[in-house]
Write a structure and sequence with these properties.
There is one protein chain. A hairpin with a 4-residue loop joins β4 and β5. Among the domains are: 51 residues, no CATH class; 112 residues, no CATH class. The protein starts with a helix and ends in a 26-residue tail after the last helix. Helices cover 26% and strands 29% of the residues. It is an alpha+beta fold. It has a three-stranded antiparallel sheet with strand order 1-3-2, with helices on one face.
């Protein structure tokens, strides 16, 4: 619900279309003769779909609200990292992956659950409603509170994590109660869930360490000229980090240098008028 509200504030009204559906041949011809006519398509023997250019554009979307929401969310994520996690763990807490609404950390500690139990101030930043009810951390005080972080796997432990790009990662979930890996989570943006299930942890590792490229076939249903058809795609599922803006920061394919690091001097410059 929050995402849909945010999206409505950021709509680009310049991309709105004016579509008309007409049956009458004279009305169709009248629209075709109009200077606003853009394109038309015969959908069947009786119905014509016509797209017209907009004559008036109302900039009535509160884009400043959407912009502010995005900037405030970035600020919240940064404050959590620097004011909470770095303050708590210092060099023993390493940021591994960050997205718009989630962070993955590698933390060197005896027991993260004990840390949360002992440090009440630290625990106020989290929502523990997804923990089992019998777990000592379980409570619903922060359930659904905007800005609070959920520990994704609750009482379970992520033992191995490989990230290649945003929404393209793999990790293993270890259950201390069962003393074994009970789940493997995989994501590969752009591929279907059924294809993601066929990906193996080793393929993620080889994409990271050996720059391997993994392609997978998938079938999709698409529409063209109001006709549905199936298509077989040869989709790029996994690949090495190729973005030029990251290459200079990477030390050993896992660790990176921060902006401002002395080894990055001369690579970036700020131009001011």
């Amino acid at each position: 619900m929050n995402n849909s509200g945010y999206g409505k504030t950021m709509e680009d009204v310049k991309k709105y279309s004016d579509f008309r559906l007409k049956f009458d041949e004279k009305r169709v011809q009248r629209l075709i003769d109009n200077p606003r006519y853009k394109r038309g398509k015969m959908t069947n023997n009786n119905l014509v779909q016509i797209e017209m250019r907009q004559t008036n554009i109302k900039f009535n979307k509160p884009i400043h609200i959407g912009f502010s929401v995005l900037e405030l969310s970035k600020l919240h994520m940064n404050r959590f990292h620097y004011d909470v996690m770095e303050k708590k763990y210092g060099d023993k807490g390493k940021l591994m992956y960050i997205d718009t609404d989630g962070i993955k950390y590698f933390i060197e500690t005896e027991d993260i659950s004990e840390d949360l139990k002992q440090d009440k101030e630290f625990a106020t930043h989290f929502d523990f409603s997804n923990f089992p009810k019998e777990h000592y951390l379980f409570n619903e005080d922060n359930k659904g509170v905007i800005g609070k972080f959920k520990i994704e796997q609750a009482e379970k432990i992520i033992t191995e994590f490989i990230a290649l790009a945003p929404k393209k990662y793999n990790f293993q979930v270890f259950d201390p109660a069962e003393k074994k890996v009970v789940e493997e989570k995989k994501k590969a943006k752009g591929t279907k869930k059924c294809v993601n299930k066929t990906l193996k942890a080793e393929e993620y590792k080889n994409a990271l360490r050996k720059d391997n490229i993994v392609r997978k076939e998938q079938h999709v249903i698409q529409a063209k000229d109001n006709q549905l058809f199936t298509m077989k795609q040869n989709k790029l599922a996994l690949n090495k980090i190729s973005q030029s803006e990251f290459k200079s920061h990477i030390i050993d394919k896992v660790n990176t240098m921060n902006y401002g690091h002395y080894r990055l001097r001369g690579k970036y410059s700020i131009h001011r008028n």
